[in-house]
């Protein structure tokens, strides 16, 4: 009889080869002890975390921890229910009001993760006669939300306003169109050319959804993201975000001025059929959001550190993404070389994410770095020293690849 | 003028098949001879993202937009060519 798991044979083989080549499993890294937002013990060694998405280093924010502990004691470890049943506490609704205020919008809806916010919102809003246009480098949650919905889904070339415009032009006037964008793209760290994309979308009366997952707390006044920085907040119909990056916990949300947004609560299955966030998470998210809004020094530190890492890697001769942001995708010639370099960095006490296709654009292998406001000068020196040591390995590997060709 | 006329003629299935094969050869590492029944994923080992990227070239070539919804059913080179033809007729 055939085995249900036969279909994974190819993936498993590829994975086994990778583990052997790397001398360890980059996808199965075990953090033995987390020491701070920027440091952990991995494989018996202290590592600087340069792949945590913890842009502001707020995972150990004392106020957030206090608020979470207090909520745990007063409200327990979980809600054990959906928002439409027993899982809507006053604190969830207060956090929704806080989020709406944070972004200057009338409505906000909390989801249990950012993944669920995209899947829930997109699959609910996408009707049979509607068209969703997504950027080709969109996050998996955007693709999955589209797949679950009934709309026609078109994919436009990454960050290409002219290509978006061409596709919009072919659609019948008067039909519903929704353009889906991200602020900072999670792999290469490039920003959306938002002014051009917004102009193209609005010229065809399309709605715009912007996922600020990696730009919340990182860009714009008050940490409100790319739309705030570019000055087009009023053109963004739906803004989606997550608490799992700069907010330092877990959770997702959608904010909007659309008068009917509340209907999403009754239609989005990823909202209806899952338990709501635990009260402790709600409490810590509320505390860090307030810190993000009021403490601009966090962003200043983040960008100072970003200068050091981005410029430093460039000076060392690495190929990095086109825009300087706290997400830095270092391009590797192929997965094999990427693995060896990744392993070398680990040996030098530097943890980065190894990113492989299909998560990466154009089948590339990336060493994905994310900078944190809490990285110290010494830690960043360790990072650059690690990359300097890896440079020799990279040159050596590159020569081997060329010789084999 | 000549250009405008060219745009109006609908490409034949064979034309499209040739273009699809040409584009697939660019992204596939496999040496096997392409035919209509070649399975894009299992025979050529071209993943779903690479297929979507390849679609950009076909869309540009024929000035069409192919919805991702239509791509789910596509397994073979011939099916992909037929899908592009359908879209080219519609536009
Ligand atoms: C662009 C984008 N959207 C959504 C998500 C999902 O966020 P969460 O971790 O809250 O599910 C991510 C995180 O990986 C992301 O990069």
UniProtKB/TrEMBL annotation, chain A:
GO terms for molecular function: pyridoxal phosphate binding; transaminase activity. The keyword Cytoplasm does not apply. InterPro entries: Aminotrans_II_pyridoxalP_BS, Aminotransferase_I/II_large, AON_synthase_class-II, PyrdxlP-dep_Trfase, PyrdxlP-dep_Trfase_major, PyrdxlP-dep_Trfase_small. The keyword Transferase applies. Keywords: Aminotransferase, Pyridoxal phosphate, Transferase. Residues 47-385 form the Aminotransferase class I/classII large domain. Its cofactor is pyridoxal 5'-phosphate. PROSITE patterns: AA_TRANSFER_CLASS_2. PANTHER family: CLASS II AMINOTRANSFERASE/8-AMINO-7-OXONONANOATE SYNTHASE, LD36009P. Belongs to the class-II pyridoxal-phosphate-dependent aminotransferase family. This is Aminotransferase class I/II-fold pyridoxal phosphate-dependent enzyme. It comes from Ferruginivarius sediminum.
TrEMBL record, chain B:
Residues 11-88 form the Carrier domain. InterPro entries: ACP-like_sf, PP-bd_ACP, Ppantetheine_attach_site. Keywords: Phosphopantetheine, Phosphoprotein. It holds the Pfam family PP-binding. This is Acyl carrier protein.
């Amino acid at each position: 009889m055939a085995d249900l798991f036969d279909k994974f044979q190819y993936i498993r083989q590829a994975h086994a080869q990778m583990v052997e080549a790397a001398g360890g499993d980059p996808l199965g890294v075990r953090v033995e002890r987390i020491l701070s937002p920027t440091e952990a013990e991995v494989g018996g060694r202290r590592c600087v975390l340069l792949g945590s998405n913890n842009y502001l280093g707020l995972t150990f924010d004392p106020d957030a921890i206090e608020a979470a502990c207090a909520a745990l004691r007063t409200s327990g470890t979980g809600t054990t229910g959906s928002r439409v049943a027993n899982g809507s506490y006053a604190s969830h609704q207060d956090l929704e009001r806080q989020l709406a205020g944070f972004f200057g919008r009338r409505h906000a809806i909390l989801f249990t993760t950012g993944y669920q916010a995209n899947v829930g919102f997109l699959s609910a809003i996408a009707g049979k006669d509607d068209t969703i246009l997504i950027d080709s480098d969109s996050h998996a949650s955007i693709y999955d939300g589209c797949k679950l919905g009934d709309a026609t889904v078109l994919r436009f070339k990454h960050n290409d306003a002219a290509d978006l415009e061409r596709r919009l032009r072919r659609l019948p006037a008067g039909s519903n169109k929704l353009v889906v964008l991200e602020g900072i793209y999670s792999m290469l760290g490039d920003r959306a050319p938002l002014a051009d994309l917004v102009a193209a979308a609005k010229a065809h009366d399309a709605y715009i959804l912007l996922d600020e997952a990696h730009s919340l707390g990182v860009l714009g006044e008050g940490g409100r993201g790319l739309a705030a920085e570019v000055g087009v907040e009023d053109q963004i119909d739906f803004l989606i975000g997550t608490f799992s990056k700069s907010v330092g916990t877990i959770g997702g949300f959608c904010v909007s001025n659309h008068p009917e947004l509340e209907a999403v609560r009754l239609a989005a299955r990823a909202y209806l059929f899952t338990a709501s966030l635990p009260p402790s998470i709600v409490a810590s998210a509320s505390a860090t959001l307030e810190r993000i809004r009021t403490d601009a020094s966090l962003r200043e530190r983040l960008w100072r550190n970003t200068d050091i890492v981005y410029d430093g890697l460039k000076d060392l001769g690495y190929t990095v993404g086109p825009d300087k942001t706290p997400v830095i995708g270092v391009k590797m010639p192929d997965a094999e070389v990427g693995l060896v370099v990744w392993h070398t960095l680990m040996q030098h006490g530097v943890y980065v994410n190894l990113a492989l296709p299909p998560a990466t654009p154009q089948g590339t292998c990336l060493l994905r770095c994310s900078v944190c406001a809490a990285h110290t000068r010494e830690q960043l020196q360790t990072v650059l020293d690690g990359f300097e040591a890896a440079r020799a390995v990279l040159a050596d590997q590159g020569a081997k690849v060329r010789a084999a060709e | 003028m000549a250009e405008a006329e060219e745009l109006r003629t609908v490409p034949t299935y064979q034309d499209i098949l040739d273009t699809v094969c040409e584009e697939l050869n660019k992204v596939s590492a496999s040496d096997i001879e392409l035919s209509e029944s070649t399975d894009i994923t299992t025979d050529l080992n071209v993943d779903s993202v690479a297929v979507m990227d390849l679609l950009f070239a076909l869309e540009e070539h024929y000035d069409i937009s192919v919805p991702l919804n239509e791509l789910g059913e596509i397994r073979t080179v011939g099916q992909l060519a037929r899908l592009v033809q359908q879209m080219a007729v519609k536009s």
